[in-house]
Amino acid sequence: MNTSNFVLRGSVCYSAGAESLLVMDDGFLVCEDGVSKGCFPRPPAEYKNFPLVDYSGKLVVPGLTDLHMHAPQYSFRALAMDMELLEWLNTHTFPEEAKYEDLEYAEKAYSILVKDLKEGPNTRALLFATIHVPAAMLLAGMMEESGLVSFVGKVNMDRNSPACLCEKSAGASLAATREWLKLSLGKSWKNTAPILTPRFIPSCSDELMKGLSVIQKEFGLPLHSHLSENRKECAWVRELCPETSGYGNAYERYDLAGGSVPTVMAHCVWSDDGEIKMLAERGVYAAHCPQSNTNLSSGIAPARRFLDAGMRVGLGSDVAGGAHVSIFRAMTDAIQVSKLRQALVSPDEKALTFEEAFYLGTAGGGSFFAAAGAAVHKGGQKGPGPAGSFESGFDFDALVIDDSGLASPSPLSVRDRLERAVYLSDNRNIIAKYVRGNLIHSLPREQTRTKPPQKAPGR
Ligand code: GUN
Ligand code: FE
Q: Ligand 1, from 156, 200, 231: best to mutate by most atoms within 8 Å of Cβ?
């Protein structure tokens, strides 16, 4: 089915705020033109002409947003997981990313990624590509084709990088960025848009950052980068930028730290109170990437302090720092590391609840698309709106999960079924996936454990 007007019935769960999970055991979601009109206990008379898609008894949740991922690194996920950040970048990441100069390799690698993304629980992603314009365009085209929503960034790096993955000069990097923007903005993509991605301060010269700031203002582009991830990296930034008051300030001095344009900074593990306050005031999103922070010995990000400071926060896989691309897995990891932080580092920082982690992976990160979509999809096509909730006005991104294979000796509440489905995240249980009202993936009926009738009797 590819129409975007319908009523979908199931056991519906979604966040109504960071601490509140709404559950409707037998709910009716209305999708009109790809946008949610809300969740109702009975099919509203107003929409009686909409077809009913009946998933009674199945869990129905909003699609997930991966706020930080490196598309070219999917090819070596779950390898070299015994190193720290800077060593891992130099020995594995940069040599792998250099391969994307070869479009044939890029096509092979990105095909694997996009197929897996389509079948998993994430409906939206912010993706780093590589420095290569053709491969970044290829990735963006494949993402558009998939029906998923994404921002794709051609990476900028002109210093402290190996010759195989270093742009010749700031001028060359800026010229390539303009060429890529011209190509990207010339496409009539519905779900895909460009985002600026200077890799991080150590790999971008002063001249490059100044030039990117000019480009950002000229095109009104959102920005995606790394901040305060790992102690050795932070020490390096202090050496490189002795005149700044901190890592965040190193972006701020180029006016590349939020403010008027939607911005995501990955990690913020070592952001102090001053940096957190600055990020909160400037509306910058932190992409909290707990699995990567563990794998690369970066630390435990102060997620509780982010929330208490009123900062915008979502979850990221940071593949391949993180080995798992599923944001269900990131929810689990976020809870686990927050418990360790409370137990071992900072007893005053209360661990995250399941409700909070679920919020971060859905509406927390999904809200980024409200402002950022409007910024890039000007005029012409209607760009993506906010995702991650079924409240009226959110884009209709939804997952239907058949958890009937997770046997239990006594019945569980819908809320507990959800928690278990998240912790035991298994893509094979996702029997249908909608993005902006379009069904982009479903399991063939014979593979689902129970066979939901597609239409209710009498409708
Ligand atoms: N900092 C700069 N580049 C990277 C990267 O590719 N992954 C992670 N985790 N951190 C980075
Ligand atoms: Fe990263």
A: 200
What stretches of 253-330 adopt beta strand conformation (E)? 263-267, 285-288, 312-315
Considering Cα of 431, then 413, then 28, then 52, what sign does the dihedral take? positive
Phi and psi at 192, nearest 5°, equal -125, 140
Query: Which residue, judged by its Cα, is nearest atom 9 of ligand 1?
Result: 321
- The matching CATH number, chosen from 3.20.20.140, 1.10.1200.10, 3.40.50.2000, 3.90.1150.10, for 64-352 is 3.20.20.140
Ligand 1 atom nearest the C-alpha of 226 is 1
pLDDT score for 371: 78
DSSP 8-class letter at 196: B
pLDDT-above-70 percentage for the chain: 94
pLDDT digit string, tens, across residues 123-147: 999 999 999 999 999 999 999 999 9
Q: Where are the domains of the chain?
A: 6-62+386-448, 64-352
3-state secondary structure of 123: strand
Could you tell me if 62 and 363 are in contact, meaning their C-beta atoms sit under 8 angstroms apart? Answer: yes
Rounded to whole angstroms, how far apart are CA atoms 429 and 422?
11
Q: Measured at the alpha carbon of residue 130, what is the angle toward residues 204 and 242, in degrees to the nearest 5?
A: 15
Our answer on whether the CB atom of 292 is closer than 6 Å to any ligand 1 atom is: yes
**Distance separating alpha carbons of residues 371 and 99, to the nearest angstrom:** 34
Q: Is 93 in the pocket of ligand 1 (CB under 6 A)?
A: yes
pTM over 0.90: yes
CA distance linking residue 378 with residue 261, whole number of Å: 14
pLDDT tens string 3-53 = 689 999 999 999 999 999 999 999 999 999 999 999 999 999 999 999 999
pLDDT higher than threshold 50 for residue 295: yes
Nearest alpha-carbon partner for 369 in 134, 35, 29, 16:
35
Ligand 1 atom with the smallest distance to the CA of 318 is 9
Q: How confident is the model at residue 448 (pLDDT cuts 50, 70, 90)?
A: low
* Closest CA to ligand 1's atom 11: 226
| Length of the chain as a residue count | 459
Tens digits of residue pLDDT in 159-195:
999 999 999 999 999 999 999 999 999 999 999 999 9
Classified as helix, coil or strand, 224 is strand
The reply to whether CATH 2.30.40.10 applies to domain 6-62+386-448 is yes
pLDDT digits (tens, 9 = 90+) for 388-443: 999 999 999 999 999 999 999 999 999 999 999 999 999 999 999 999 999 999 99
- Give the pLDDT score at 381: 66
* Prior bond of 372 cis (ω within 30°): no
- Dihedral pair phi/psi, residue 21, rounded to 5°: -105, 120
